[in-house]
Amino acid sequence: MTSTETLSFLRHHARTILALILFALLVQDVFGTHGFLALRHTQKEIDRLKQEIAQVNTENRDLAEQVKALKSDPKIIERIAREEMHLARPGELIFTLPAPPPKQEQPKR
């Protein structure tokens, strides 16, 4: 092909070539690595992580309040000492009942 034939071909098919290039760019913008779909996926992941961070922050605040109460609230300290460590005040008696036996299933007839 000579240069005049090439120029003639380009002039004749310029709109088609331009349309194909624009279509390729559009496909890249929608489906590419940094395209619209990838952006939407990333935004959903960011929203999910923000929600998870908020939940963890709430749990951390609750745990910090529990730690503070465990260090300073005498009622909570006494309850744990009585229930978990089976401690009693002087003169008190602790009666521990045995756990009920597990139910045994009756054989089916």
What this model shows, in words?
The structure is a single chain. The chain is an all-alpha fold and 109 residues long. It has 2 domains: 31 residues; 48 residues. 69% of the residues lie in helices and 0% in strands. It is elongated and about 115 Å long. The model has no long low-confidence stretch (mean pLDDT 87).
Features:
109 residues; mainly alpha; 4 helices
**What is the β-strand count?**
0
- What is the makeup of the main sheet? none
Secondary-structure class: mainly alpha
Principal-axes shape call: elongated
How many alpha or pi helices?
4
- What percentage of residues falls in helices of 4 or more residues? 55-70%
How big a fraction of the residues is strand? under 5%
Terminal residue distance: 95 Å
**Low-confidence region ranges:** none
Oligomeric form of this entry? single chain
Question: What's the Cα radius of gyration?
Answer: 37 Å
What count of domains describes the coordinates?
2
Series of H and E elements:
HHHH
Mean pLDDT: 87
